[in-house]
Design brief:
Elements (H helix, E strand, L loop, with lengths): L3 H5 L3 H14 L4 H20 L10 H13 L4 H20 L26 H10 L5 H16 L3 H5 L6 E2 L4 E5 L5 E5 L2 H18 L18 H14 L9 H14 L4 H8 L8 H18 L4
Antiparallel strand pairs: 1-2, 2-3
Amino acid sequence: MENESAHNSSHINELIDLFLENLGQLKFSPASIKTYQGALLDFVRWLTGQGKTDVRAITKGDIEAYRLGLVARHLADAGCHSYLRVVRKLFRYLEEQEHILINPTADLVLSTPTRRLQYVPNDEDIRALLDRIDTSVPYGIRNRAILETAYSTAARRSELMGMNLRDLNLENGTVRVMGKGQRERIVPLGRQAILWIRRYLDEVRPAWGDDTNEALWLAPGRTRLTGAAVHCELRRLWLESGGTQKRIGLHCFRRSCATHMLRNGASPVEIQMLLGHSCLRHLRQYLQVSMTDLQAAHAASKPGQ
């Protein structure tokens, strides 16, 4: 609970600390909290330049001036939207907690920025990359198991690297995933993922750790493997397999899994459950990609012509 002195404070830095603490209590991930903190530090730097540190002195005009300042810095629409969305969320919290009587962002309307379609490797690209892995060595077996799991489950990078031994149920062909907000979900493992996980568990992991180490994916030093290490290896494999110069990362496997399932007849609700999204609107990216495919097929078949 907030103490009385904190509740009576009007200094922007102290109130931001309370706001970030509240995000932690709401089970926001450390990465999300860090993103919020970065946006608010930018806002505070701007306020300091205006000689304002008391939230009660911040007006609608100040918020508009900050918005124009973001535009003047030639930030992308998505970047401006992200900064302002965090600022609006901060002031809504301050209003709810009665730190302020008038919310200067109450009338702030944020238009949804235009989002470019994200790159989605096709099935042939994914398979070419996976086949490029040298599975005659322990590293290769582990890496193949990780990427097959990523493609099979559409897990986020943090979810994939956070998997533990106890999360696996290879007999049932499932794995438990800890998602955003500490929400758990059970997702299916494909045949290839199960095959390579078994090889990793039988041939590689015993030499790198034992069952007292809960992490599923290990580095040789008996430590949990990091997403950064996997990303570097993935980038190398992508280029060697003839992949394009487009950016590749574990999230591409997430997009590929969802998009390929949609193309093959899975329903949006099923994809939502797999991805762990709280609502269907988060599927817009995948639905747009599938619509692009549909339009291409429509043009190629020239119905009605």
